[in-house]
Amino acid sequence: MYTFGMCSLWHLATVSVVKCTVIVRPLTHFTIFTDRVLRAIICTIWTMNLVISAAINVGVTSARFNWITAIAPVNRQNTLFWRAFAPISIVIATLIIMTAYAKVFLVVRRQVRSMPPAVLGSFGSSSIFGSSVRSAKNLFVFVPPSNRMMTTTFPTWVTC
Fold first, then answer.
1. Burial letters for 25-52: b for 16+ Cβ neighbours within 10 Å, e otherwise?
2. What is the DSSP secondary structure assignment for residue 155, as one 8-state letter?
3. Where does residue 141 rank: exposed (0-12), middle (13-18), buried (19+ CB within 10 A)?
4. Which CATH superfamily groups domain 2-149?
5. Residue 27 CB contacts under 8 Å (≥ 6 apart), including other chains
6. What SS3 class is residue 35?
7. How far apart are CA 2 and CA 21, in angstroms?
8. What is the DSSP letter of 72?
9. Which three-class secondary structure state does DSSP give residue 77?
10. Cα 11 from Cα 96, distance rounded (Å)
């Protein structure tokens, strides 16, 4: 579950960077992100998350599946790496996503402001700018992971 959640988050970060380059540098986008580069990025995301998940699970001393709650609590020898890596990874990926879409917003705003009034018509830049901002907002889709992934405490009725 951890691997798939982190892969999803890093895929969102990758998609946001690719969309940003499409909007910011449309003529050089296909020379930067070739099919080979995109395949390498996807393979790197999956490989790194599988390696990190394996490293996290090395310290597991016991795991027991509870059929009533459908939760498998685990006991770990060292929880420092697991507790430190998840928040750092989430923060870095979120910053990449936010930076990419902030750049998209700034480029769209600059382009709309540089248009001559004859092109904009009688409504001015507000109608074009508003639709451009709505389009840029629609690019930003992010679902934060649930708090269950981050907590290591279990209710008292769950036995290990």
1. eeeeeeeebeeeeeeebeeebbeebeeb
2. -
3. exposed
4. Rhodopsin 7-helix transmembrane proteins (1.20.1070.10)
5. none
6. helix
7. 29
8. -
9. coil
10. 11
**Unique residue bearing structure tokens 């020379």:** 31
Give the pLDDT confidence of 55-82 residue by residue, as tens digits.
Answer: 777 778 888 888 988 888 888 777 677 6
Tokens of 19: 């969309």
**106-158 pLDDT, tens digit each:** 988 888 777 776 666 655 555 555 555 555 555 554 445 554 444 444 444 44
Enter the tokens of residue 23: 């909007």
H helix and E strand count, the chain: 6, 2
Per the CB < 8 A criterion, the answer to whether 149 and 1 are in contact is: yes
Contact 9, 89 (CB under 8 A): yes
